[in-house]
Design brief:
Rossmann fold, Ribosomal Protein S5, domain 2, 3 domains, Helicase, Ruva Protein, domain 3, 505 residues, 17% strand, 21 helices
Length: 505
């Protein structure tokens, strides 16, 4: 007897339909899985066989053929275990085929018949919603992320025996999103009030948060660069519904969502080690999988010891920073991952880290300084809006208690600035913040005063600014004006924006 179950596969961050066909025919006991199965899919035979027996069903001593259609697309992962098992039970007459009609089924099986989480549950639920199916059956641990797709009916499965009993009875209880299903605010106790001193760096990060600008902090070790960077998510606005779906989809595909954990509206914060590879940073590998730039989508990518990364790895970020996406091309297909992230870098000023710390401890030669700084290419430095120095804090300042501004106070100003930007760019679907806006549009509609424009043009001529740097200064100045709650970009805003450009820009 032949049985067919609707399932799905994920390519990039999008799901596509896969039909799992199971045929049980007379012959010597054997299993054959066709349809370009990967290694994990081929091993489904052992998992499904053990799960069926341990769930209390009899395994047929006949020839079993499983086809995954379309057969010309490679299938990876363990999500086909559950549809194969249900298809086998239908083929041997233990389950009515109408019971699974118009259902999409995914899930990994344990040997004891338990149903374990899989990658890509949210894109799969979105596929079921687009096709207006009766529901999607998936592991209970994937339920929290799948519920974000409001139009999909989610049926949580915990064991093979349990879901078979529900299908036989015609009772498929849908999961309901509980109150507080999404985490709204950080709970790690990290606060800007913990960072003593460094007013210039705090100001730069406030501007960066308000306009989603990239920022680079340069200073000796122990001056608080990492502390400052890790507190940036606490002053960012929460993700809206669209951004939350994008972020959870990427994290679901990458398999970094803890099973059963509540989705978080807190912008992601990724901090990979400086020994990361190109594939780890940009994405790739078999599959392929998203890299750190995509896992930081709609959030922050923090690269500590930025200048310790090889230059070719740093330059690989140039296109994602400009386009907001990564395209990984393979012989058979090309996969696109979103990568609209905010880059925050931290670096020492020289190989020994002591240059500019107010002492004579640095022994690096001028040639050493030039070679070290050259690791950051000009085109990449151009794409970083804010360059700020983080110097050593005096001991008298360190002894102050309770004198620093809290994250909540800074966040209030950031939220006000973001509200102005939402109103300004309401007619532009692809613009959310000042960092997204076209520089030419801001020059025409950003309300620069004549004095501000004159200062900008003079600085561009004297410093030899590129067109990209010119427009980025306008964007930063626009953000500074938003923080000042003014519609007009004054000369002071342009002057402050210019202070954050590197001398070589």
């Amino acid at each position: 007897m032949l049985a067919a179950i609707q399932s799905a596969a994920v390519l990039g961050v999008e799901a596509f339909a896969v039909t799992v066909e199971v045929d049980v025919a007379p012959g010597l006991p054997a299993w054959t899985i066709v349809g370009l199965p990967g290694g994990a899919v081929k091993e489904a035979r052992e998992r499904v066989s053990a799960a069926i027996v341990n769930a209390g069903f009899e395994l047929p001593s006949r020839r079993v053929t499983v086809n995954l259609s379309p057969a010309d697309v490679r299938k990876e992962g363990t999500a086909y275990d559950l549809p194969i098992a249900l298809g086998l039970l239908i083929a041997i007459g233990r389950l009515d085929p109408d019971a699974v009609g118009d259902l999409l089924v995914v899930g990994e099986l344990g040997l004891d018949g338990s149903i374990r989480p899989v990658r890509g549950a949210l894109p799969i639920a979105a596929l079921a919603a687009r096709r207006a199916l009766r529901g999607v059956v998936l592991p209970e641990a994937n339920g929290a992320e799948a519920l974000l797709v409001g139009k999909a009916r989610i049926v949580a499965a915990t064991t093979l025996a349990g879901i078979v009993a529900c299908l036989r009875a015609g009772e498929l209880p849908a999961m309901v999103s509980p109150a507080g299903a999404v985490v709204e605010r950080p709970s790690d106790g990290v606060d800007f009030a913990d960072v003593v001193g460094q007013p210039l760096a705090k100001r730069a990060l406030e501007i960066a948060a308000a306009g989603a600008h990239n920022v680079l902090m340069i200073g000796p070790p122990g001056t608080g660069k990492t502390m400052l960077a890790r507190r940036l998510p606490g002053i960012l606005p929460p993700l809206d519904d669209e951004a939350l779906l994008d972020v959870v989809a990427v994290h679901s595909v990458a398999g970094v969502l803890p099973p059963g954990a509540r989705p978080s509206a807190i912008p992601p914060f990724r901090a990979p080690h400086h020994t990361i590879s190109v594939a780890g940073l940009i994405g790739g590998g078999p599959g392929p999988r998203p890299g750190e730039v995509s896992l930081a989508h709609r959030g922050v990518l923090f690269l500590d010891e930025l200048l310790e990364l090889p230059r070719y790895i740093l330059d690989a970020m140039r296109q994602p920073l400009e386009d907001g996406r990564v395209v990984i091309a393979r012989a058979a297909h090309a996969v696109a991952f979103p990568a609209r992230f905010q880059l925050v870098g931290a670096a020492n000023p020289c190989p020994c880290g002591r240059a500019g710390d107010g002492t004579d401890r640095c022994r690096c030669s001028q040639a050493d300084l030039e070679r070290y700084g050259a690791r950051l290419s000009g085109p990449l430095a151009d794409r970083i809006d804010l360059h700020t120095h983080v110097g050593a804090v005096e001991l008298s300042v360190l002894s102050r208690n309770g004198a620093e501004e809290s994250s909540n106070a800074i966040r209030a100003r950031v939220l006000d600035a973001r509200a102005q930007q939402r109103e300004r760019y309401a007619a532009h679907a692809n613009w959310r913040v000042n960092a997204d806006a076209a520089g030419t549009w801001l020059l025409a509609h950003g309300a620069l005063t004549p004095a501000a424009r004159e200062l900008l043009d003079t600085a561009a001529e004297r410093l030899g600014l590129s067109a990209r740097a010119y427009h980025r200064i306008v964007r930063v100045a626009r953000t500074i004006a938003d923080l000042d709650a003014t519609d007009t970009i004054h000369e002071s805003a342009v002057a402050e924006a210019l202070r954050y450009r590197p001398v070589r820009a």
